[in-house]
Records
---
Amino acid sequence: FFSQFWGFGCYHYHDILSMFGNKLNPRLFIIGFFVGKDSLDDQLAMNIIIEHETNEEYIQSPIFGIKNRIREFLSTSGIVNLIKNSLWNLSWFRHLFNKLEIRNDRIAIYDRENNLYQDLLYSTTFSALDKIREWSNNNNIPILMVLIPDHLQIIDKSIFVQYELNKPQQILIKHLKEIDIQHIELLHDFTNSEKPQELFLREDKHWRAETHHFVAGIIYNYWVNHTTFLGNVKT
């Protein structure tokens, strides 16, 4: 039996498991975690910025407010999107736009040095992952996490020169191993694919149809090649 649910962030994924997991009673749940956004969604879901007193000074700072306003303007302005679509064929413009996008949206998760906001983002996600693992144990239904790379990790690596390109994957994999959740990391497969630049839509981080087939093959190969994991999956 197969069913697909969309979601955003691990707290939402946990809610879906709690509501539908036992009713569906599948052999396995596969959860896709988008490293470029899901930690931010987890933080918003818990209202952690407002409630966490130790971060109140940082959140109320002018820098944080300016970044939020820039991010909102870039994503919602009709004029900005019209200009972007008109100039997108120019490589220098795509690079500039990508740099602005990541620096005004999620660069904190790539900082080489740990900082208060980065620790907050990951600790919030870890808490949600722990809940998912607890649900899996209590219901005897295995979880397979698929770590989906940020599209900019694939199509424009040069913007990460001052940052740590694969830091989100490193941090998440470490925690997934600690709580014993099986996982697949797609950054390596995407980077080493025949045409990495063509995995995504022209002006979007979403996958092309061929990319879905590509990832399905990776998940299938993992399934058939991990006999220990298969032994934990209900027959």
---
Amino acid sequence: MPAQVLAVLKVFPESDQISLEELRKRLEAVLPEGVSINKVEEEPIAFGLKALKVYAVLPPNISGGTESVEEAFKKVEGVSEVEVELVHSLL
């Protein structure tokens, strides 16, 4: 059984007018219990729009996998879409 699970989620802002730093802070504020953010990167999408690539560390026994994190992120003001890119167990 893995000690933890790494999930990489791509979070798309509603527009290029949204501060990615503020969006990052809002995402950190809604993390489910036991979940932490390891790293956040900005990823260019197109026409000046950037997404946040969030590397979240989840406990191995979290109910529903990444669903609780996805749902929490989708409710954040300024978030257009959340996409899971990778889920990987950490030994």
